[in-house]
Amino acid sequence: MREIKKQELPVLAIDLGGTKIITALISNKGQVLTKEYHLTLADEGPQSVINRILFAIDHLLSLSNIDPSQLDSISIAAAGAIDFDKGLITSSPNLPGWNDIPLRDIVKGKYRINTLLINDANAAALGEHHFGAGKGVNNLILLTLGTGIGGGIIINGRLYSGQCGSAGEIGHTTIDVNGPRCSCSNIGCLEVLASGRAVAKEAVRRIRQGERSSLTEIVEGNIENITAEKVSIAAQSGDSLASEVIMKAAFYLGVGMVNLVNIFNPEMIIIGGGMAKMGDLLLNPARQVVRERAFQLSAGAVRIVPAQLGDNAGVLGAAVFAFQQEMD
Question: In this model, does residue 6 exceed pLDDT 80?
Answer without folding.
Answer: no
